[in-house]
Design brief:
With about 180 residues, this protein is mainly alpha-helical. Helices cover about 70% and strands about 0% of the residues. The chain contains 9 helices and no strands. It has helices spanning about 1-10, 15-35, 40-60, 70-90, 95, 115-125, 130-140, 145-155, 160-180. α2 (about 15-35) crosses α3 (about 40-60), α2 packs across α4 (about 70-90) and α6 packs across α9.
Length: about 180
């Protein structure tokens, strides 16, 4: 982790040879990972390039100063998010294919819920504001930790993110409840 932080510092100094090293170091593993999403090789290559560019831009724009995970974890989180976006943009229903993570506060979203409830949930999720939708999708659908989401979305603190997530869940539950009234 200390070595990863040094790489971030080098990238802040615009040492692009470091970016080349990072690009090559994780490329093969990323391709193996991305193939599990049934994405073409060309699309995987595009997503990986976009991922590394986003990573570098986050550093140069000051969005990523201190790592709380490894560079690999950070890159894969960005890449996974970009793959989901691409699948969504390609009109593939990624929501249907994802397993919803169990969580005490989301009993309503258990995998065994009826088709009607799933439909209501999807509609409610799509009716949330963009920021809420993004936070909940990253946490529940993509399985990112709060620390990863905090880094990825550039929240000032974990507590601010927790509050946002809580408000979003409340709003989502209200939307779902209204459908059943």
């Amino acid at each position: 982790m200390i070595e990863d932080q040094q790489l971030i510092e080098d990238l802040k100094q615009k040492k692009l040879i470091v970016l080349d090293r990072i690009y090559l170091a994780y490329k093969e593993e990323f391709f193996l990972f991305a193939r599990t999403f049934s994405v073409s090789e060309d699309d995987i290559a595009d997503v990986y390039q976009e991922t590394v560019i986003s990573f570098y831009e986050n550093i140069t724009k000051g969005k990523l100063n201190q790592l709380t995970s490894s560079i690999k974890t950070y890159l894969f989180a960005i890449g996974k998010f970009k793959i989901y976006r691409q699948l969504k943009n390609n009109k593939l229903s990624f929501v249907d294919e994802l397993i919803i993570h169990s969580d005490e506060e989301l009993k309503i979203f258990e995998v065994e819920v009826s088709k009607k409830r799933q439909k209501v949930l999807k509609e409610a999720l799509y009716n949330l504001g963009a920021k809420c939708k993004e936070v909940l999708e990253l946490f529940y659908y993509e399985g990112l930790t709060l620390d990863e989401i905090q880094n990825f979305l550039n929240y000032s603190s974990k507590d601010v993110l927790k509050s946002q997530k809580s408000r979003c869940l409340k709003q989502l539950k209200e939307l779902v409840t209204k459908r059943y009234e």
